Amino acid sequence: MIKFSLSLISFTLVFFGLKNFFSEPKIQRVSPTELTITNFAGPDVTPSPACLAVAPTGEVYVGVDMIGSLGKDPGKGHILKLIDKDNDGKMDEHVDFAEVDNPRGIIVQGSQVYVLHTTFSKETKQATGMNLVVFEDKDGDGKADGPEKPLIEHISNAKYIRERGTDHATNGIRMGIDGWIYISVGDFGFHDAVDRSGKKLTMLGGGIMRVRPDGTEMEVYTHGTRNVYDVAIDPYMNVFTRENTNDGGGWNVRFSHHIQSGEYGYPVLFQNFTDEIIPALADLGGGSGTGALFMDEPNWPEQYNHVPMMADWGRSMLYIHRVTADGPTFTQKDEEFIKLPQITDLDVDGSGRLYLSAWDGAGYSGSPNKGYVVRAVPNNWTYKAFPDVKKASIKKLTELLKSNSAVGRLTASQELVLRNNKQAIAAALKVASDQGLALDVRIAGMYTYAQLTKENGIATLVEFTKDNAIKEFALKALADRKANIDKVPVEPFLEGLKDPSLRVQAASIIGLNRLGRPEVANVLLQTKVPASFTAPAKGTEGPHATPNSAIILPHLAVRALVDLQAVDALLAAVKTENSTLALWALRYIHTEKAVNGLIENYKQSTDEKLKQQILVTLGRLYKKEIAYDASWWWGTRPDSHGPYFKAVSWEGSPIIEKFLKEEAIKAGAKGKQFYVDLNARQRMDIPEFAEEEKVAAAEEPKIDLDKIKNKKGQVGKSSIEDVLLAINKLQGDPLKGKNIFNNQGCIACHSLSKSEKMKGPFMGQIGSIMNREQIAESILKPNASISQGFASVMITAKGDRTYMGFITEETAAKVVVRNIAGEVFTIKAGDILSRKEMETSMMPEGLANSLSYEELASLVSFLSEQKK
């Protein structure tokens, strides 16, 4: 199904329940006294629901996806429109709205329905990529009037969608009050995505991008995330995400606040170069984030309102993240809210009805018999019809724009933008200008006005920057659309840098970046760098999920200086009190001018500390990331050493190498270690600085799995159903389970602690991801659905050599393979002739056959306690 690289048990992801949803509802409410939850639609109508969106008027659009994340065959997906005519919480009617494969995100705006989905060739039946498209239903019959209209094409990596499925591809979409569509990009990234204007864009790895509703102005919003499935956007345009675990590779589920232009570090910066990233607000352990929503509806209880609600498929839980302002960013505290088996998505309508979809054990490749949709409303909820905005007067739309409903404000805003007349402009301006209105309402009015007036509204937005209450948002709106950016004055942003509000300062820096005027570089260079800007010590992992509000402003300033390519200003600042920020920015500017300027600064300086920092910067510039062409992907547990994944030399490399060697000779034997450490940290691979790596040979367990699986005990003589029934009744002894884990050969392929060498699927968090029944079934049926990233791989290499196992480490230079017997092989990347992912699990069936029910229960209990 979804992009779930979960922290899973080695063997497989399994089905959540054995009974039909309607015979035994699986809804568990964390706060049962507050909400009424009803079964809205079952698997007979909505099997494998990957995503959903709700029209303001209450019609539910569900993306059915029976291909799943690992399936390869088209023709198994569609968008359904579900209608509850009597508002009793149960679907009364459903219509096939459109046929699409792998629907991953839906937005409903009036007669238009935006859908993100995988595309397939009609001739070859193979995936060709992913597109963001729009359907239209002008006649209101519940069906799309004609074929889809592409807005962005090739928005994911077609090669890996064909090879793996849509697991790390592009996913959820949501519209902000600013009128942009925000798109969650998995770490497949994309190459040469093209929007309706013909603009092309490439992104290595994951992040968030955005585009206008007409499919133009496509741009990257943030970068350096792993598997974002959806975004929650609040009324003030704060963007929040909950990501996915990479199974023991150091990147757990994390809750993040996305700040435009920010770099979040996955996979090459988040361990050894954490000083350079915006850290997550929290590391939440194992799991798999899916759908997201910022709840902002007036008829919801206050304790569950004005909060990001984030689904976690792996934990089968909808979480609330309570955010608290912290300078230009936030801190957070998460809490469980609604438990739902493998929850995939959620959305709310204009009457306050929250709809949630559940995969319910449909497996990685989808199921025609699993999955459902539920409705949740506060106990005191009563239906209130949402107005037909197409028929509404400007006065009625203005009232809706001023409402305390986020759904109402967005719907009114978009309708006013569509009207595009003087009355709509006047109405939006009046709302934005009224200082007696709530801030979120004024923001909605201001963004509506900005969309309607474009360049003609610049002067008015400049005036808004003098209003302290709305200044931050006026600055954002001024720099929001690059099509008009040359007409925007720079002065409001320079003034904003002096504002006491750190949020205003952040908006000003981002705006100066977007204005693209290099003459502001000297002002940006005055941004103070905090003491927390410190590289992790050798051999330690940096704080990549600890809030650090002090780093935000200098981080944004660096991103701006790099985008401005302000080389002259940066080089001049190296000799000043702003050298730290200047050298930080110069790490990313691979030009010979920058290299030669750094060397000249080094020669002129007598400050030994500064000279060392210059050497570090030159070491970073020695190589650069290879241009991404979508022919490769780093996998589910990539090499995270950094600073690059596939490093290559460039024109400045020989200049840097010559200079470093000369300085190393001058430093003599006493100073050699600095260059050895620099070479290792920056992975320069300069032979003269290489130090022979001394690795103690680890004693690997020798496991005879054939002998284990051929023993027949109580489990081997019983049906899986009988075994599971027995396991449900037996608690088992976790201490005995630990011994069984070792004796049954599990240690050959699995680690329990992050301090151990990573092998196959990580077991240290399995208890926070799977329940006892799932764990037991995955042991008994290892081929039901293979853990993502841990399928068997067959590699043929030069010298007539063949290896089969799972990949435990991969860099641009080598691949490390571990076979089922626990043997480890290192293969040079240049020696690999072919590589094929097998369709079966490496774990053979029958490893539990020799066990008694009590012993298997003990093993399951031991694993269920692993929640690190």
Automatic annotation (TrEMBL):
<keyword id="KW-0479">Metal-binding</keyword>
<dbReference type="InterPro" id="IPR011989">
    <property type="entry name" value="ARM-like"/>
</dbReference>
<dbReference type="InterPro" id="IPR055557">
    <property type="entry name" value="DUF7133"/>
</dbReference>
<dbReference type="InterPro" id="IPR016024">
    <property type="entry name" value="ARM-type_fold"/>
</dbReference>
<dbReference type="InterPro" id="IPR009056">
    <property type="entry name" value="Cyt_c-like_dom"/>
</dbReference>
<dbReference type="GO" id="GO:0020037">
    <property type="term" value="F:heme binding"/>
</dbReference>
<dbReference type="Pfam" id="PF23500">
    <property type="entry name" value="DUF7133"/>
</dbReference>
<dbReference type="GO" id="GO:0009055">
    <property type="term" value="F:electron transfer activity"/>
</dbReference>
<keyword id="KW-0408">Iron</keyword>
<dbReference type="InterPro" id="IPR011041">
    <property type="entry name" value="Quinoprot_gluc/sorb_DH_b-prop"/>
</dbReference>
<dbReference type="InterPro" id="IPR011042">
    <property type="entry name" value="6-blade_b-propeller_TolB-like"/>
</dbReference>
<keyword id="KW-0349">Heme</keyword>
<dbReference type="InterPro" id="IPR013427">
    <property type="entry name" value="Haem-bd_dom_put"/>
</dbReference>
<protein>
    <submittedName>
        <fullName>Heme-binding protein</fullName>
    </submittedName>
</protein>
<dbReference type="GO" id="GO:0046872">
    <property type="term" value="F:metal ion binding"/>
</dbReference>
<feature type="domain" description="Cytochrome c">
    <location>
        <begin position="732"/>
        <end position="867"/>
    </location>
</feature>
<dbReference type="InterPro" id="IPR036909">
    <property type="entry name" value="Cyt_c-like_dom_sf"/>
</dbReference>
